[in-house]
Write a sequence for this structure.
């Protein structure tokens, strides 16, 4: 079980590296005007999204394996999983924003993306405290 949990944490950390960095690229993309830089940022976004999506999938699968494979229970797990569903929606929305940028359809400012970038930070804080402290 500890090996599965260690792998779970490793993939969670890697997933969050992408969830923190991708919106940061969006902040820069929303500020640049020249086509060459926009194309380079679009390529970075596509590669990062393609890399971090399977990692997120593995992180969640290992979490579900811990839950159902080792009989964990408690309100903390239900709240945690609800927040993770929100995190998956955030991830998929980043995919939509990435495609909007690639098609020249972005409508959000760099300020909007700076705020958007903080959402995974808040989720990480709550999920880690929930999982370690198991308050209910
Ligand atoms: C549906 C998705 C997920 C499920 C079902 C899940 C489930 C679990 C379970 C059952 C454990 C073992 C708890 C223990 O040993 O005390 C665990 C550990 C952990 N999970 Fe998840 N997890 C999921 C996603 C995540 C995400 C997205 C994060 C980070 C934001 C996360 C962070 C952690 C951490 C830090 C631990 C280690 C806690 C400890 O050792 O006390 N998990 N997870």
């Amino acid at each position: 079980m500890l090996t599965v949990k260690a792998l779970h944490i490793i993939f969670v950390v890697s997933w969050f590296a992408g969830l923190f960095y991708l919106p940061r690229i969006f902040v820069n993309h929303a500020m640049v005007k020249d086509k060459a830089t926009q194309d380079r940022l679009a390529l970075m976004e596509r590669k990062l999204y393609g890399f971090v999506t399977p990692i997120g999938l593995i992180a969640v699968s290992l979490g579900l394996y811990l839950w159902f494979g080792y009989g964990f229970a408690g309100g903390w797990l239900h709240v945690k999983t609800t927040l993770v569903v929100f995190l998956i929606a955030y991830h998929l929305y980043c995919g939509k924003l990435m495609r909007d940028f690639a098609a020249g359809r972005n409508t959000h400012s760099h300020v909007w993306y700076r705020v958007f970038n903080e959402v995974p930070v808040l989720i990480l804080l709550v999920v880690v405290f929930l999982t370690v402290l198991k308050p209910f």
User: Anything to note?
Assistant: The radius of gyration is 17 Å. Residues 2-133 form one domain.
